[in-house]
Design a protein that fits this description.
This protein has 11 helices and 6 strands. By secondary structure, the chain is an alpha+beta fold. The strands form 2 sheets. It has a 4-stranded antiparallel beta sheet with strand order 1-2-4-5, with no helix packed on it.
Length: about 450
């Protein structure tokens, strides 16, 4: 399985486009985050590390070839030795001369495992570990998509809250001015002025808080993407709010059981632990290796075999572990407990994924109803405010009723926008639960962003 990483050149181009465009859309942010997010980069490095488990395990099944050589200088002395002990020999009594010469030896040896069940099961365990690493990395990519969308929508959410708080503050301020004028001519009591002043102060506090949150969420997006965006596209009103398809909860849970990445990773981990247990239990079995060795020895000294010797050896080596102080049995028990832990982890993930998928399906279905209801609630709040203001004019309602009606209107406007963002996030989380969240989902959502009235970052202006 191959994974593509954004090249520095493309990332630089994305940054240039970000600064030259009037606003930034969701895909711009995602591409920047994909290139610079340290969490994804760390997951990629971890994935590459875990990929090496297979070639390392496979190496134990392949031939092992080694070439060794040495050269030594020999200084040989014979103290007390003579060439001849025969008095009649002309060499009688002459000391044996010292020898100085070099020895050269080299050896080539090839070893091939013929029967090694422990290495074989270790290799199969490594294959499952690599598959687990693949699933974990894809999950990290999906998690990045969700983190980008959540950070992006949090900025839009903060802007909507700021817009609502600013509009409420302005409306309450106008109301306070009108009440003050009425009080000045004796049409209302001082209590109306005090109530309006308190409402204005509270609205100001909410606007200040919303303004601070707005900057905080922009900074969070900057941390994720590495870019300080001057503005972001808003979510279009044309975004379809529809029930998840298929419309049956059981269909989503069944799919999640088959394709959820955390479950797949746990399944591969269980396979790896089972193969590891087989490998540990095979440690006490015989191993058989074939060996071919060729060596050459050359010496400058005296040797009754001659100055040069060539040796070629063909052999079968069998090894049977007898006793290693209980080490083999302890490792087998360790692998057994690891397998049991993997079984329980898989069960836990299946239970959690089933629960989360059902809850997310219900959440999306509820979000659809909530968005529609809150859209109607805006119209109802507008009508209620208009009726309350009319009642205040004729004396059937007091100023508190008007202020509360205004607050309900602006709150309903924010709640409508907030429910749309929750719908998007819950829908993407539902897809993530089934392992089906891909970049094309992000591209589809990006089609429903609009540069009209962008969200501006005050810290970059």
């Amino acid at each position: 399985m191959k994974f593509k990483v954004l090249t520095p050149a493309i990332f630089f181009l994305c940054l240039m486009c970000t600064h030259t465009a009037s606003a930034t859309n969701l895909m711009d942010v995602y591409l920047a985050a994909k290139a610079s997010d340290p969490v994804l980069a760390g997951a990629q490095a971890t994935h590459q590390v875990r990929q090496q488990a297979m070639p390392q395990a496979r190496a134990a099944l392949l031939p092992n070839i080694a070439l060794t050589g040495s050269k030594s200088d020999v200084d040989r002395e014979f103290p007390g030795a003579v060439l001849s002990t025969d008095p009649t020999n002309p060499l009688f009594g002459i000391a044996v001369p010292d020898q100085k010469f070099s020895d050269t030896v080299w050896q080539a040896q090839a070893t091939q495992p013929l029967l090694d069940l422990e290495s074989w099961y270790t290799y199969k365990s490594a294959k499952a570990t690599v598959r687990q690493a693949d699933a974990d990395y894809i999950a990290a990519e999906q998690n990045l998509i969700l983190r980008v969308v959540e950070a992006y929508l949090n900025v839009l959410r903060a802007q909507d809250l700021l817009d609502s708080a600013t509009a409420e503050e302005a409306a309450v301020k106008r109301q306070l001015e009108q009440v003050q004028q009425r009080f000045d001519v004796g049409l209302v009591a001082i209590t109306d002025v005090l109530e309006s002043t308190a409402a204005y102060d509270n609205a100001t506090v909410r606007r200040i808080q919303a303004d601070g949150d707005h900057d905080i969420f922009f900074e969070t997006l900057r941390t994720l993407s590495g870019v300080a965006y001057p503005s972001l596209d808003r979510l279009s009103e044309n975004l379809p709010i529809t029930n998840p398809m298929p419309g049956h909860e059981s269909a989503w849970t069944e799919k999640a059981m088959q394709t959820n990445l955390s479950i797949q990773a746990a399944e591969h981990q269980l396979v790896a632990s089972k193969q590891s247990l087989k490998a540990r239990r095979s440690s006490h079995l015989p191993t058989v290796r074939g060996l071919i060795s060729h060596s050459e020895f050359e010496t400058g000294g005296s040797n009754f075999l001659g100055s040069r010797t060539n040796t070629t050896t063909y052999a079968l080596q069998a090894q049977v572990p007898i006793f290693q102080g209980g080490f083999i049995h302890s490792r087998a028990r360790e692998a057994k407990y690891q397998m049991q832990a993997a079984e329980q982890q898989l069960l836990e993930r299946k239970l959690n994924v089933t629960r989360d998928t059902r809850n997310l399906f219900r959440a999306v279905s509820t979000d659809v109803l909530r968005v529609n209801a809150r859209q109607r609630g805006i119209k109802s709040s507008e009508s209620a405010l208009e009726a309350t203001e009319t009642g205040y004019e004729v004396g059937t309602r007091n100023i508190v009723d008007v202020l509360q009606a205004q607050q309900r209107l602006y709150l309903s406007q924010f709640d409508y926008a907030d429910s749309r963002y929750n719908y998007v996030l819950d829908l993407l989380r539902l897809k993530q639960a089934t392992g089906a969240l891909v970049e094309s989902d992000l591209e589809e959502l990006n089609n429903f962003t609009t540069p009209t009235n962008p969200v501006k970052n005050k810290t970059t202006n």
